[in-house]
Amino acid sequence: MTRGMEVDSIADRILSRAGDARRFIIAVAGPPGSGKSTLGAALTEALTAHGEKTALVPMDGFHFDDAVLRERGLAGRKGSPESFDFAGFHTLLKRVRAGEPDVAIPLFDRSIELSRAAAAIVAQDARLIVVEGNYLLLGEKPWSALAELFDFSIYMDVPRAELERRLLARWAHHGRDAAAARHWLETNDLPNADRVAKRRRTSDIVIQNV
Questions:
Q1: Where do the H-state alpha helices sit in the chain?
Q2: Order of strands across the sheet with 205-208?
Q3: Domain that holds residue 110
Q4: Is 28 helix (H, G, I), strand (E, B) or coil?
Q5: 108, 31 contact by CB (below 8 A)
Q6: What is the pLDDT of residue 112?
Q7: In 10 A of CB 66, how many CB atoms?
Q8: Backbone angles phi, psi at 137, to 5 degrees
Q9: What's the number of domains the chain is made of?
């Protein structure tokens, strides 16, 4: 099955499940480097092509600022569950779930490693909302409280060796030398990936993304 066919098949399944719901929220979860952002964007595009009003909400906009991470002793664990503003993210998803008008969301800009506040809007008439992030299916408190907010869930299952390859390439692209990239991978990215994989809740779909 090609990637385009796979996305179309998932979109069809979502539309079937959504029925005539006024608002339907889809979670796309997986470890860092698994392809969540790519799938989230592709699904949003596919659902829009079906004539649906859609919106994409990335969890990464809720990263704590580096200054806050330093204050909390988490500078070396950026991207871990503890390095996100869970309360803010949870509140935003509840507002989205309730269908509030024009909900502003932050977006993370990896080129500057900062979140940009109110960088996008979830319109009130958006029926299908795609949310993507590492910890949407994490079976740990407080993250497990998100379960009641999702109507459909997808987990990206990628072999650890492939995650390692992708993440090293990502950090090289962003200018880290090989030693720094390897250190970050082993002390941060892979522990985060292992936590996602070992402690995830069940999902409606598991994608073997190799």
A1: 3-18, 36-49, 66-71, 86-98, 160-173, 178-184, 190-198
A2: 54-58, 128-133, 24-29, 152-157, 205-208
A3: 3-208
A4: strand
A5: no
A6: 76
A7: 14
A8: -110, 15
A9: 1
